[in-house]
Amino acid sequence: MTRAHVLCSWLAAGALSASTSWASVPLLPPLPLEASSGEENGQAWPREGTEPLPNPFVGGPLVQEQEDGPAARETSGDHSESGLRSDEPAQSAGSAGAASHEPPVESAARSPALEGPPIPLAPPLRMSSENQNDGGANDDKPVTMHFQNAQLSDVLDAFARFTGLNIVASERVRGAVSVHLTNVPWRTAFDTLLDVHGLAMSRRDNVIWVAPLADLAARERQRFEAHARSAELEPLASRAFALRYPRAEDVQRLLTASGAQRILSKRGAAVADARTNLLFVTDLEARLAQVAELIATIDKPSRQVLIEARIVEGARGFSQNLGARLSIRAGSLDAKTAIDGQNGIGHDLSAGALSGFGAATAGFTLFAAQATRLVTTELSALEAEGRGHIVSSPRVVTADRTKAVVEQGTELPYQAKVRSGVSGVQFRRASLKLEVEPQITPHGRIVLDLEIAKDSVGEPTAAGPAIDTKHVRTRVEVEDGGTVSIGGIYERQDRNDVTRVPLLGKIPLIGALFRHRAQREQSSELAVFITPRIIGVD
């Protein structure tokens, strides 16, 4: 018997002895061998045209099934470069009895465990899709995948192959997961998977690091603290800024505000020179660059507004008479003007109540820019007819969002105690005061914050004359060149007039024949017309 026959007999005996443990492995026939005629050792070679058969007992180690059970995996995408194909060998989630009749299948090679977390990446914890142009998959690319009791690392590996990105998982990322997704954007699916398992990610270029949220937050906190410590050691620099339009003191208060509104660092400081309007800033180089950008943004000329006010006083009801005359004149131009005000006069809001007055006491009316010249003409006509007169017509120019104040009146002296046992003279104002703060909108309209106060001398008292006060405060939007009219500020005076003949009127008893007493009630109305116009830089 040659050595080849002995080898075949030995292999057959080994197969019979292994049948007790591998019943599902069929016996293989003896390898087709023949002895070479010219060899003394009896070395065997395959026959010509016959491929050598693999030996099932030689090769890589056989791995048993996972403890968590088999995982069925199916993923699909829009492109074949995702690395996931439908014809991949999948492990069926069948019964354990079926597995006893089949040889164990060698599982896919697992990635080696990481020794500690990778290099920390820059925040944010969720990657932004605005500036991620590194060749990865589009965030809206749909993905379809089905996993049943699969390891979380396997699911992350599927995402890595689908997107073409590199995903590095922390050693604490573990556990089983069941996923059933159909045509879902991969970013939505990926973020949902992380949220469910309390994970977060950080991305740099085409590498995504996945770790527990607490670990990633702790690492970012360490990075922030290290950056703060390095900032304390960084040398300071100084720079002088020459401001053209804003005041240096205002910019200084903006930079050195308290709390979260502070722009400078803890070590930074700012000094303003009112004479030269220079601002000296000392801080880190990075903060100085931010301050320079801020100053370049705010150091621009402000738009200005010319505010023309006409304060008119007339008999009671003259404002209604003026409105009627304006409606008649505007009706000759456009009948629609006096109705809805879209093309001319404006919206009549005189029935609306203002602060401190009833609905029938004070109100305002808006006039469009085309009707402003009509208002000026009618006011001049009323003054010529003696039905009213213009008390004051001030004009003031103010910057955008800057309050302008116009005040006209008198100051009344009165005795007041300055301190115990000592009295002094103080003054009270009885004046007409107008405060206007304009705000230019992006559409070229003007928002006016109006405050009007009309103080007059009242009845005399032991401490001094009383002050009758009327106050209106409102906020209104008007177009450039339009006019807002505030009326309904009434004043009532009761007068006792005595008319007598000189000398004879003072004679007792018979003097009454030469005297005449009359009680009169005089009512007047005050109306304020304000016209703003935008001037200056566009």
Task: Write a structural description.
Helix content is 22%, strand content 36%. It is of the alpha+beta class and 538 residues long. The protein has helices at residues 3-17, 96-99, 152-163, 186-196, 213-233, 248-255, 285-298, 318-333, 337-340, 372-385; strands at residues 33-35, 44-46, 74-76, 142-151, 166-169, 176-185, 199-204, 207-212, 237-242, 269-273, 278-283, 304-315, 348-349, 363-367, 388-392, 395-399, 404-419, 422-440, 446-461, 464-478, 483-500, 515-535. It is built from 10 helices and 22 strands. It folds into 4 domains: 1-63, no CATH class; 70-90 and 113-129 and 136-233, Phage tail protein beta-alpha-beta fold (3-Layer(bab) Sandwich), CATH 3.55.50.30; 238-298, Ribosomal Protein S8, Chain: A, domain 1, CATH 3.30.1370.120; 305-535, no CATH class. Residues 10-134 and 332-362 have low confidence and may be disordered. The strands form 6 sheets. Strands 12, 13, 14, 15, 16, 21 and 22 form a 7-stranded antiparallel β-sheet that branches. The longest helix has 21 residues, at 213-233. Residues 1-23 form the signal peptide. It is found in: Cell outer membrane; Membrane.
